[in-house]
Please model this.
Amino acid sequence: PSRVGEELRRGLDQRIWEIFYYLRSEFKKSDKEPSYKNHTIDQLIHLLAYSSNISDTQADWRKASLEALSERIQKKIDEIQNPDDCAKARVLVCNLDKQCGFGCQLHHVGYCFTVAFGEGRTLILTNDGKSWRYSKRGWSGAFLPISKCTHAAAVNGEGVASYRQNSERRVVELPIVDALQDRPKTLPLSFPKQLEDEMIKLHSNPPLYFISQFLWYLMRNNAEMEKVIEKAVSNVPFGEGPIVGIQVRRTDKIGTEASFHSVDEYMEWTEIWFRVQELRRGHPLKRRVFVASDDASVLPETKKKYSNYEVFGDVDIADTAKLMSRYSDASMYGVVTDIQLLSRCDYLVCTFSSQVCRMGYELMQVRRPDGEAFHSLDDLYYYGGQHDHQQIVIEDHVPERDNEIELKVGDSVGVAGNHWDGYSKGKNRRTQRQGLYPSYKVIEKWRIIDFPVFNN
Ligand code: GDP
Model:
């Protein structure tokens, strides 16, 4: 298959989803005859299944190619992380112990990692991650060390300079991304020009696929953590048919960083996915869902209301009280297990405003890559601190309502969100106007950047 062919195939699929989002949302507001609405939705689901069948014809080739590509990237990361001489290596020091939740901390280290990698520096955790509010035993109590070089060996008594792009200093340290003055080109959503062709051919979302490689490398479990994960995995029938993962983020997030979403909303999208899959595969499917949440009421509620589903999830983990005393080994093991299990599901329904769900989705991109295997009830996928996410207009748009913006072919739009109703919100860079526009009238504008480490 060619790159253009793959782009066209995925573009078609995305456009069918956009008309599905549009009509589904319009039908909810309209009093047209139910039979007309149902019939239209049925036809669209049929079309989505048909379209996914096309991708099935090349599934083995795509899987094998992506595995080979991931292996190549992991090897390169491993090489940079393990230099011959720790005392001479150019290093970047990053403090794991940011004052926030697990997903937020890992995303912080992931951002340090891409900056380091972009400059061919070895990433080192401050004090080797020994002072970590999640565990007295530190980073290595749960994960493999990220480098053979210890902090002491790598710094080797040298002064640590604050980060500047392409600084001559051997040892530099990064602040949190919000405080970063000198923003490297390599920050997400960038991906290497050296891998451009393969990435665009093989994955619908190359920047996501690329950044995920760093989170994957970070989250390599030690033996103890591996046992915990294996046990949790064995309680869910992965491999016996498709399973949808839902992650329901509530408690402290509601009203501050996200809105409340009922279990029914998550399950509505789960059911839509199963309907498409049944048609795609041509036989009935056992309904299975894995539930992750910080709210203890979600698992019992799902079990009670959806008796046609087999519902999985760890009762112990979904204990709000335990999660409230957030920084403990127990809560860390809980959230790592949930992230790992979400990454093994075939499809995710969640709010991308949650870093926990985004991490599950990110690990999925290395385990069994599929950039389209999600429905977010709020944000588009993003990486904290990313460069402006831009799209290019491929069809003119004349505003039809006050809150819409004009588009002309070739305009760049900074996208703020997809409303999952056929419209996205963004700012046209030409007119500087912000508002809604039909999502199908744009394509992604990729940030393709030189990563010299891939030159040899
Ligand atoms: P965010 O606040 O959801 O964006 O993600 P963070 O990881 O930064 O902080 C949320 C914290 O709440 C996590 O680190 C967990 O301790 C807890 N938490 C949130 N969602 C879940 C979940 O689905 N499962 C578990 N076990 N813990 C969760």
Q: What stands out?
A: The CA atoms of residues 413 and 428 lie 4 Å apart.
